[in-house]
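Action item from last week, closing it out:
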Amino acid sequence: KAVVSTQSTVGKLQKKGERGSATNYITRTQAVKKLQLTLPDFRKICILKGIYPHEPKKKRKLAKGSSAPKTFYYVKDIQYLAHEPLLEKFSETKVFVKKVKKALGRGELDTVQRTRDQKPQYTLDHIVKERYPSFADAVKDLDDALCLVFLFSTMPRQGRVQPGIINKCRILAVEFMHYCIAAKCIKKVFVSIKGIYIQVEIDGNEISWIIPHQFTTPPPSNIDFRVMLSFLEIYTTILGFVNFKLYSTLNLVYPPKALEEVFSEESAVYYGDDIYRERLESLNIKLAEVEKDEDEDEMDAELLTGDDSLEELKKQREEEENFRTLFKDCKFFLGREVPREILALVIRSLGGQVSWSSDTGVASVYAETETDITHGIVDRPSQSHQFLSRCYVQPQWIFDSINQRKLIPVDDYIAGCMLPPHLSPFINKNSYMPPEQVELLGRTDGEEAEETTTPLDLTAEEKKLAIMAMPKKRKMLYNKMVHSNKKKTSVVNKLKRKRDELDETRTKKAAV
């Protein structure tokens, strides 16, 4: 008799979520269990390695119909994290904490001290090399690093942040500012309520960051500092590598060292680490250099001569060189009430000389009685003693001259005068431009409107038919673009209404 096979000819049924795009994602809870980490450690390793969550297209289908909020990661990213050597260090740290707590509970202080001396240590050098294979990649991603490092450098010493972290951030910030002075790479400066925005150019990359005002504010209590400190840990490592490379390109000694011959014999005496550090933080000392090759500049000059096609490039280079020496013929003396650090940074980076009273800070190069001082930077309406050989201006004159790339007249910036509007150099064609900005650029409102609006050749009916003929994805993208443009236009109109109301109020006050 023939034997009837009981095996089904139909293949094995596939369950939902085991095939297709669903296998590309994993929830955060599953990732934490797979890596055997706590949630804070998982957040930290993701920040250090640059792993971020992703939003799947069919999120509800992946969640099996559940509408509860869930965070998804790529499975490949989690598998990549599973081979990270830092995971072993995290487990060693967990064991270390248990040992310390156990010894403290028993009152064994000798064991506690011996265990603390054996605390696991790790470095992030290999992560920096993985995330930034070349120096150009690290420079392009320097904006956020500088913002966070400068922010933590102004934190109070007694607070939620350890003083060692604050000192490290301050050292890195001072080193980067010294590079900006030596390279003369500052392009734009803008003072706002949040802080001072600065833009520099390094290897053709524009880098912008914000320096907080010199007022120590208590850190807010509603911020998770563990997440910020995780970002700060990788950013300080990146900035350390970048500073070393930048100093080597300028043939400067790293860590920076001061030249003793720039001071008098009495001030050149070594007073200790604290005084030496104050001199570095003053940003008013020359740094020691290593031996450099003098043939490089001669080769660059030869390349720019002898070819008519490079005349335009040569002209641009001359204009840039003139801007880098904007304050070459100026000698400034700062009053005690003005922000000394930012003014020393921008003045010295553009070829100027700056000093202040020796009573207000160290590294004072010359006294107030010098006859060749051209400008006095003050922020008080009247001065007890004035020198007729110099003009006294407010600090905004420095910043506006940098943004306009020329020495502007000082008539509107005399001490005690009502200052003109401080215009932002970070402008966009589609953003709001005040009338002073339009006048400065030499354009009228009509010309501005012509530039910001692009006329369409299609009629209303043709435009409607074109939108109807669009595929679904392109139509969604088009609707997002239209919504974004309407939102920007509403913001611009709101600012224009506020400016009209302000002008009307000023007119009424002047009439009274």
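Closing note: Residues 261-272, 444-454 have pLDDT under 50 and may be disordered.
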